Amino acid sequence: MPDERVIYYYASAQTTHTTYPEGLEVLHFSSGQIEKHFPNGRKEITFPDQTIKNLFPDGQEESIFPDGTIVRVQRDGNKIIEFNNGQRELHTAQFKRREYPDGTVKTVYTNGHQETKYTSGRIRVKDKDGNILMDTKL
Predict the structure, then answer these.
(1) CA 108, CA 115: separation in Å to the nearest integer?
(2) Residue limits of the Centromere protein J C-terminal domain (predicted)?
């Protein structure tokens, strides 16, 4: 093209691949998915439902969902989920922890044990079957 873009159209896949002079590559798929491949190695994928996924060169990932939920996957595999209602979750190999806007924190360990810490200082611990092992009702 006169502006130095290179555009390919793959008829069998119904995909358009545009390369810009600065190195950005944009692919438009027939499904409505759009992929942007940046010169620094980052990739941004926009899905038909408008979910956006960023893949970073260092292995981290970030997904932004239409409802505002954000999921970040770190290089070590830990996952952080930020919900649009202010709640936040951390998933690791050892536990899943949800933090609520009021400061309450609930942790579920891989063995099924649950621990809930309330802002009042109360702590409740349950076994994998939901039986209360400890409750420091204040």
Answers:
(1) 7
(2) 21-49, 57-91, 96-125
